[in-house]
Structure formats: structure tokens, C-alpha cells
Design a protein that fits this description.
alpha/beta, thiamine pyrophosphate, Rossmann fold, single chain, magnesium, 4 domains, seven-stranded mixed beta sheet, oxoglutarate dehydrogenase (succinyl-transferring) activity, 32 helices, EC 1.2.4.2, about 950 residues, about 35% helix
Length: about 950
């Protein structure tokens, strides 16, 4: 008979009441009720002895109610509490109540008031049986003990190794012969203590069950067969196989089947390297010949440099034969940086839900696979979990599967985590956690069904801890006996789960020995045929999805005057129901200031951004702005969301109310995370190319905690995986004497990662600017005017392709009186300026100019101020490079040759080993063929981005500005 021995709790109150957030599949553990009955036979406890035990919380609830109203509890408890308050000694406070109170009248309502956690059954004579009450309280205590500690004796480890030996003290149990009367006795628990009629979870038997088990075995056989085939054909190749956790494949397929049955149409998955090839082949059904091609040294047929085979993703749409429904399966490509893909998957999932209008996550869901050591060791896991229930980041429930090898590379759990389970990090959001023995296939499938149903019902995260082992070393050519000799002696002696389970099925008559052998041979034949076909391939392809536009034509970014006027007017106005919506007085002044600017046909930085966003919304482009404090803006400049000053949660999103048929505008304050949130927004941006997705750091300096996403996904994503993203990264940057952690977004790091040859000047054709943008991996800008910021944001959508955009945004320039732009600079026919050329007196007589200064960013305003004070406007020309990458060779060349008698300097406020100097120096030389030396003016080299002292800051600034103005 097929039986899965389980001890489970009902779903609704699970997260707060059962297993402290764990839902366990206790396979191989004896059922609970006989043990409970055995304990009851020797129980001598009186009710008051439980006041300090597991049931004390329920008694305390009653006691508190009794203090408010003695009639709210049963007379027996009323007397008990009175005696206790009077100082009765332990064991003497309880007194049987008078007869006739209906305690055992057969009506359970009086009993529920005696002890809310239990409904008692017993004598109906009217006499209170003290032992009966004690017995039922004991039931409560024992059940609670199993909830809290039963997992310590669950047979979870297929190797039988108990690493946490200290937990044995919690798990001592006794078995006694039980009387027939005790077996027949009824203990009716509260709803959260569902254990089934006998503690067993029986399966149905017959043709249906036999078919079900055969399907599961076929999946297991394919999982094991795939790894065996790879080991045979490529024995010396790294493949990070799944051996030891073969049940991962049937587990995933069962979750997909169950979720498809409940209406899910699209599943987005993220996973580490281990088992990826098997998942691609047997879960996503990527053609085997395509998988095998990755083992051959084939020539790339496109622009991608590619990545190792166990980092690649895929997208497949196929018919799920178990449900007869179409299902779309995506595996997101990711690097070896463990768990970094988690938030990217969540962002993609949220985006697909958003664009499909799937507000409950009924059609689109995510599955995340983890390794045990990484799940507990990588902080991004914690960060991602904390996004799981935030309104603008939730994906309405993710199923997490931990392929628990019980080892991280060569480190065992005693040295890699401080908690009993690798999954304990999931308890921060009260996610139910299923720990299950991966060598018990039927238990695994049962748990997968429950997890899929939980996610579909409650739309919350759920975790499956698939306790397994790793048959080989970290990779197939590693020697694990160096560091884990005891574990690997056990592993070598243990048969694979496919062999163990097949023997069990043959023994039970589910399959025959011949059917077993035929199944193995058939799959090996399939692999052999795919292997032969793979030998015929000469090239491999990475498919890049291009927008259906002219690849070298950029749509206009300027706007009609009436559109500009309409947006700034709405952006400067209070809510239409201003009489009922009380806004802060400070915001009233801000709105008035905006209106004054609008009337003068002038815009500041915040208004330039609002014009870019608003005009895209008008054109049907969804705009999403995410990050820490972005609704208001770190520097209190944005204020896109107004808050009612007397009504909680009453807000007004200004840009959401520009036009009746506009696209949606999402502006959302994030959790205090950079790593996970930037990854999330990257994933979101990859779903729809016709959307503007922006992430803003609180200060540009803080982006360094998201460096993994920047390095591994944003800078190199297209090169490795041929996946484009138009993500905009906004990094407040500028030296204003605010110390080393609030000054520099590390511009130099982004420039250093640019895919651009500093020694190559591209041909100067009409397509020069857009061709540069097409060929580079990302765009890095340091704009100085609201108009250029406006054009730059709109250009992200106007381009016929998508590239990430890194922006050094200002701080002090947000309110600088000279950092203003007129409507004319954003009107029809205007566009982004890669360079702002000198337009003052120096430009009128270029031959008389003695010095040309090239700079970028805020320092331009510092330079012009000093130049004006020293009356050098006709002697010194200043040009600012707004787009640093790709470098505007053509315009830099023109501007330099414009002043034939001028010395050439690059001036920056950052230190010499930082900022733009290292990037621009060789490119300036290339632009002018080294015909004129370029000098550096700025701060000296430093290990720190900025000084922490105001006096030192000002002294440094005065020094380099003075040098810049010297003739």
C-alpha cells in the first residue's frame, strides 16, 4: 500500500502557529497519536502544572479574560483562578465544580470556554474527571512539542548523518503498548492541529495510482539518465550535475503540473549552476541536441561572447501533457554569483504580471532554486524575501526549492551557518518551510503539491528544503574525500534514488523489471540520437530580439510647446479636490515656485524630469521609478506623491493624472536595499522594451552594494547572454563637502567597464552618434541642464535598440539658479547635446582664447563662477562633455581645433585616480591624433572619494580652481 507518513497542519493558521513557520513532511516517522496516547498513560499532571508549559499561552488568555469578566470562563476555571489569586499552593488550586454545570453534558460549547484549545470528550455523568482534563492538557502539550521539535527526529537525511547532534535531547520518545480503550479515545483538537484520522496520509490504490507513480518514476529515470549520459560522453567536463538530488526534476515538474492545473500560464525560474543543464533539458524541454552543442567548441554566429553552458537561460513554450494546457517556461541566465539572479527573476515576474493585468499572480509565477549554503550565506536572499510582500514589488508568492547537498563546496553546515536549517532565513516572512527527504520520491511529490496549492491559495512565498546529497565533488573533477571522508564513504555505499525507487515499484507490482529496463534503454536511445545530431552543428546562436525600427534612426525627443505647457501646469497644481485634500504648507510654496517657473517658460531639474516622464506617459509608455525615497526625492526636490496631512494613506500621484488615456506611472519607495532592488528593476526592464524603468540610489555612493548586479548583469548582460535592457540608473554625484560616503558615485568604475576602444576613432558619418550607441555596452552621462536630462531620458525610448543608461545626477544643481533650461531647449527639433560648446565671449573670438577647459558635471558651474569673478570670459573657453561614453570624438575634435592657440586642460572635481580623467585622456589624444597635450587639473590622488572636513574640502577646491584659471 502506498503511504506517505506525514504530520501536517492546516494551511490557514500555519505561518503563525505551526512549527514556528515550518511545515514538515516527516516521512519514516511514526504517527503522532499513538505516541500521544502512550504519554497520556503515565501523565500525572494537574491543570496548574501547565501554566509554565506549552499550553500556558492559552491559559494566560483565559486568565486575562477572567480578570475582565469572571463570567467569561467556565466555573471550574473561575474557581481555579480565585484560589490561585488567594495564594493556593501548587496542586491545590483546582477544585471540581458542582455537578450539573454541563461540563460533560455532551455539548462542546461549555468545554470550549473551559479550554479554547481543546474540545473534550469523556464521561457524561456530570462529574468532573480531573484526570480527563489533565489528559487533554497533556495532548495539547505533546502536540505543541511535536510542532516545535518533531522536525528534529524526522528522517530527512538520506545518508543518515545527524550533524546537529545537540538536538537529540529534544527528541526522546517512548513507545508503550496501548489499550484498546486508549486507541478508541477521541481527542478533538483545535483547527490548527489537523493530523488526519490516524496520522497517516494514505494514497489511493488502483490503476490511477499506479499510473501516477509510473509517471513520477519516468521523470526520475530521465533525470538520472541525463546525468549518466553526460558523465559517459564528457567525463572530464565540468557540468555541475544533479546526482544525489535527482528528485529535483520530478519535483519541479510536479509543481509546474499543479500550478498549470490551477491556471498558471507562465513560470519564470532562476537557479544556480548545479542541475541547470538537466532543468533545461527535462523541465523546459530544450532540445537535447542544443544542450549537447554547448559541450562542443563551436564558433559563435553572432555578437555575443557567450558564457559557460551552466550559466545560460532559455525560453520555451509547450503543451503540458498532464493538464493539456500551454505553459511558458523561462530560465533566467545568470553568473556564478550565487543568488544574484533571485531579484532579477522577481522583477521579471512582477513586470509580466503588471503588463498582463495579473493582479493576483494567478497566471504568472516564479520558481527560485537555491543551494543550501548559498541560501543561508548570501544576503541578497534576505533582501529578496523582504520584497515579497511590498505592494510594488510582490510577485504574489514564489516557490523556493533548496537543492540541499548538505555541503557548500567543501564546507559542512557546522561551519557555514549558525542556524539549525539552511532555510531559516525564510522565517523572517513566516514562509512555510517543507523539509523533505529527497530519497523519498512520494513524499517529495506530496510536498510539491501542497506547496503549489499554498502558493495558489494564499499568494505567499513557500519553501521546499529538498534534503539530498552531492554524489561527486563540487564539480565532476573535484575530489570530495579530501575534506569529507565520512560523508563520501556513505555516499559511495548508497544506491541512487532511481535504483532504490525502481526496486520498490517492482516489488509492489507497479512496474515490471522489463518495463524498468525498457524505460532506461528508451531514454538512452533518445540521448544517443540527439548526440549524433549535435555533431552536425557548426555554429551556435544567441538570438537578440531587436525592436522593429530602423536600426540607425532615433525618433525625435523634442515636444510641442502646448504639450510642455500642459504637463508643467498639471505638475505645478494641487489636486483637483484641493479643498478636501490638505497638503503641507511647504509643498504649497514648492507648487507655487513651479508655477512661477512655468509662467516664465523655464524649468528646473525636477520639472525637466517630470516633462520627460509625463510626455512618455502621454505617448503610452509606462514609466516606473523605484528606489529609496524616490517619491519625495532624497533631496526633497521631486514630490511626485502628495500626502494628505490629516488622513493616513491618502495620497495623490501627480503624474498619474496628466491625461485621461495616459500610460501608468509607477513611483515607489523601495526597501532599504540596493542589491536586490536594482536586480529587481533590471528584471522588470527586461520584460517590456517599450517602458522606461529607472532605479535611483539614495546617494550615488550607495550603488557599490549593488556592484554584483552592475558588473555581472548590466554591464555585461548583452555581451554574455545577448539580452538588452534599457534600465536607467540614477546616481546622485558631486563634491559638496559632505564627506567620503555622500560625494562620489564612482564615475570611473562605470567608465572603466565600457566596451569602447580608446585608440579607435570611428568613421565620421551621419550615423556616427547612433552607431556609437549601438556598438557600446551601456551609456554613461553626466548632464548639467534639465533640458539635456529631459532629452536623455526620452532618448532611451526613442532609440531603435535598448542600452542601459548610467546617469550622474546632481545634488546642489537641483536648486542652482543657473541650472535652468527654457522651453525652447526642449521644443520641436531639439535633441540631446553630447557636448555643450562654449557659447560666451570666448566663442566670438576663438583665436584670442588662451585656454580651453574640458570638464563634465557640476564643476562647470564652479569654473564659470570663478571665471566671471576674474573677468576671463574672453580668455578661457569652457566646454562640458555631457556624454562620456560613448565618447563624442567628433565633437571634442571640433571644439579643440576651434581654438588653435589655446592650451588644453581637463578639469574635474574628483581625485585624479577617480572621475573621468583616466577615461577621457586617451580618447582626447585619439580625437586630435596627439597634436596637442592635455593637462590634468583637479584633486590629487586619494584612496578615499572625498575628505570628511569642510575646511580641507574648500582648500582643495580653491586650489584646483585657481590652477584652472591660471594663464
Amino acid at each position: 500500500m502506498y503511504k506517505v507518513r506525514t504530520f501536517i497542519a492546516s494551511a490557514a493558521p500555519l505561518a503563525s502557529h505551526c512549527f514556528e513557520g515550518r511545515l514538515l513532511c516527516l516521512s519514516k516517522l511514526e504517527c503522532v497519536l499513538p505516541v500521544v496516547a502512550a504519554r497520556l498513560r503515565s501523565t500525572k499532571a494537574s491543570p496548574e502544572s501547565f501554566l509554565n508549559g506549552s499550553s500556558s499561552n492559552y491559559v494566560e488568555e483565559m486568565y486575562n479574560r477572567w480578570l475582565e469578566d469572571p463570567r467569561s470562563v467556565h466555573a471550574s476555571w473561575d474557581q481555579f483562578f480565585r484560589n490561585t489569586d488567594a495564594g493556593a499552593a501548587p496542586g491545590e488550586a483546582y477544585q471540581p465544580p458542582p455537578t450539573g454545570l454541563g461540563v460533560y453534558s455532551g455539548n462542546t460549547l461549555p468545554l470550549a470556554s473551559i479550554l479554547p484549545s481543546l474540545a473534550l470528550s469523556g464521561s457524561k455523568t456530570g462529574h468532573v474527571d480531573e484526570k480527563a482534563i489533565a489528559d487533554h492538557l497533556a495532548v495539547q502539550a505533546i502536540i505543541r512539542s511535536y510542532q516545535q521539535r518533531g522536525h528534529h527526529v524526522a528522517y530527512l537525511d538520506p545518508l543518515g548523518i545527524k550533524i546537529e547532534e545537540q538536538y537529540k535531547k529534544y527528541c526522546t520518545m517512548t513507545q508503550e503498548n496501548l489499550t484498546l480503550e486508549e486507541y478508541r479515545r477521541h481527542y478533538i483538537m483545535r483547527s490548527s492541529h489537523f493530523v488526519g484520522s490516524s496520522g497517516w496520509m494514505p494514497g489511493l490504490w488502483g490503476s490511477l495510482v499506479a499510473w501516477f507513480l509510473t509517471v513520477q518514476y519516468r521523470r526520475l529515470a530521465r533525470s538520472a539518465g541525463f546525468e549518466g549520459f553526460l558523465a559517459k560522453k564528457w567525463s572530464s567536463e565540468k557540468r555541475f550535475g544533479l546526482e544525489g538530488c535527482d528528485m529535483l526534476i520530478p519535483a519541479m515538474k510536479q509543481i509546474i503540473d499543479k500550478s498549470s492545473e490551477m491556471g498558471v500560464e507562465s513560470i519564470i525560474m532562476g537557479m544556480p549552476h548545479r542541475g541547470r543543464l538537466n532543468v533545461l533539458a527535462n523541465v523546459c524541454r530544450k532540445p537535447l541536441e542544443h544542450v549537447f552543442c554547448q559541450f562542443a567548441a563551436l564558433e559563435a554566429a553572432d555578437e555575443g561572447s557567450g558564457d559557460v553552458k551552466y550559466h545560460l537561460g532559455t525560453y520555451m513554450e509547450r503543451l503540458n501533457r498532464m493538464t493539456n494546457k500551454n505553459i511558458r517556461l523561462s530560465v533566467v541566465a545568470n553568473p556564478s554569483h550565487l543568488e544574484a539572479v533571485d531579484p532579477v527573476v522577481q522583477g521579471r515576474t512582477r513586470a509580466e504580471q503588471f503588463y498582463r493585468g495579473d493582479n493576483e499572480g494567478q497566471k504568472v509565477m516564479s520558481i527560485l532554486l537555491h543551494g543550501d549554503a548559498a541560501f543561508s550565506g548570501q544576503g541578497v536572499v534576505y533582501e529578496t524575501f523582504h520584497l515579497s510582500d511590498l505592494p510594488d514589488y510582490t510577485t504574489r508568492g514564489t516557490i523556493h526549492i533548496v537543492a540541499n547537498n548538505q555541503i557548500g563546496f567543501t564546507t559542512d553546515p557546522r561551519f557555514s551557518r549558525s542556524s539549525p536549517y539552511c532555510t531559516d532565513v525564510a522565517r523572517v516572512v513566516n514562509a512555510p518551510i517543507f523539509h523533505v527527504n529527497a530519497d523519498d520520491p512520494e513524499a517529495v511529490v506530496h510536498v510539491c503539491n501542497v506547496a503549489a496549492e499554498w502558493r495558489a491559495t494564499f499568494h505567499k512565498d513557500v519553501v521546499i528544503d529538498l534534503v539530498a546529497y552531492r554524489r561527486h565533488g563540487h564539480n565532476e573533477i573535484d575530489e570530495p574525500m579530501f575534506t569529507q571522508p565520512v560523508m563520501y564513504r556513505k555516499i559511495k555505499a548508497r544506491k541512487p534514488v532511481a535504483e532504490l525507487y525502481s526496486a520498490q515499484l517492482v516489488k509492489n507490482g507497479v512496474i515490471t523489471e522489463k518495463e524498468y529496463k525498457d524505460l532506461i534503454e528508451k531514454y538512452e536511445q533518445i540521448c544517443d540520437e540527439a548526440y549524433v545530431n549535435a555533431q552536425k552543428e557548426k555554429q551556435f546562436y544567441y538570438k537578440l530580439t531587436e525592436l522593429r525600427k530602423d536600426p540607425m534612426k532615433v525618433a525625435p525627443t523634442g515636444l510641442k510647446a502646448e504639450t510642455l505647457q500642459h504637463i508643467v501646469t498639471r505638475f505645478s497644481s494641487p489636486p483637483p479636490n484641493a479643498a478636501d485634500f490638505k497638503i503641507h504648507r511647504g509643498l504649497e510654496r514648492i507648487l507655487k515656485g513651479r508655477m512661477d517657473l512655468a509662467e516664465a517658460r523655464s524649468v528646473d531639474w525636477a520639472m525637466g524630469e517630470a516633462l520627460a516622464f509625463g510626455s512618455l506617459l502621454k505617448e503610452g509608455i509606462h514609466v516606473r521609478l523605484s528606489g529609496q525615497d524616490v517619491e519625495r526625492g532624497t533631496f526633497s526636490h521631486r514630490h511626485h506623491v502628495l500626502h494628505h496631512q490629516t488622513v493616513d494613506k491618502a495620497t495623490y500621484n501627480m503624474l498619474q493624472h496628466l491625461y485621461p488615456d495616459q500610460a501608468a506611472y509607477t513611483v515607489c519607495n523601495s526597501s532599504l536595499s540596493e542589491y536586490a532592488v536594482l536586480g529587481f528593476e533590471l528584471g522588470f526592464s527586461m520584460t517590456n522594451p517599450n517602458a522606461l524603468v529607472c532605479w535611483e540610489a539614495q546617494f550615488g555612493d550607495f550603488s557599490n552594494t549593488a556592484q554584483c548586479i552592475i558588473d555581472q548583469f548590466i554591464a555585461s548582460g548583452q555581451t554574455k547572454w545577448v539580452r538588452q535592457s534599457g534600465l536607467v540608473v540614477l546616481l546622485p554625484h558631486g563634491m559638496e563637502g559632505m564627506g567620503p560616503e555622500h560625494s562620489s558615485a564612482r564615475l570611473e568604475r562605470f567608465l572603466m567597464m565600457c566596451q569602447e576602444d580608446p585608440d579607435y576613432f570611428p568613421p565620421e558619418t551621419s550615423e556616427f552618434p547612433v552607431r556609437q550607441l549601438h556598438d557600446i555596452n551601456w551609456i554613461v552621462c553626466n548632464p548639467t541642464t534639465p533640458a539635456n536630462y529631459f532629452h536623455m531620458l526620452r532618448r532611451q525610448i526613442a532609440l531603435p535598440f535598448r542600452k542601459p543608461l548610467i546617469v550622474m545626477t546632481p545634488k546642489s544643481l537641483l536648486r542652482h539658479p543657473e541650472a535652468r533650461s527654457s522651453f525652447d531647449e526642449m521644443g520641436e527639433g531639439t535633441e540631446f547635446q553630447r557636448i555643450y560648446r562654449e557659447a560666451g565671449p570666448a566663442a566670438q573670438n576663438p583665436d584670442a582664447v588662451q585656454k580651453l577647459i574640458l570638464c563634465s558635471g557640476k564643476v562647470y558651474y564652479d569654473l564659470t563662477k570663478v571665471r566671471r569673478e576674474k573677468h576671463l570670459e574672453d580668455k578661457i573657453a569652457i566646454a562640458r562633455v555631457e556624454q562620456l561614453a560613448p565618447f563624442p570624438y567628433d565633437l571634442v575634435k571640433q571644439e579643440i581645433f576651434r581654438y588653435p592657440n589655446a592650451t588644453l586642460q581637463w578639469v574635474q572635481e574628483e581625485h585624479k585616480n577617480q572621475g573621468g580623467w583616466i577615461h577621457v585622456q586617451p580618447r582626447i589624444n585619439t580625437a586630435i591624433s596627439g597634436s596637442r597635450p592635455v593637462q590634468y587639473v583637479g584633486r590629487a590622488v586619494s584612496a578615499s572619494p572625498a575628505t570628511g572636513g569642510k575646511h580641507a574640502y574648500q582648500m582643495q577646491m580653491d586650489q584646483f580652481l585657481s590652477e584652472a584659471m591660471a594663464l
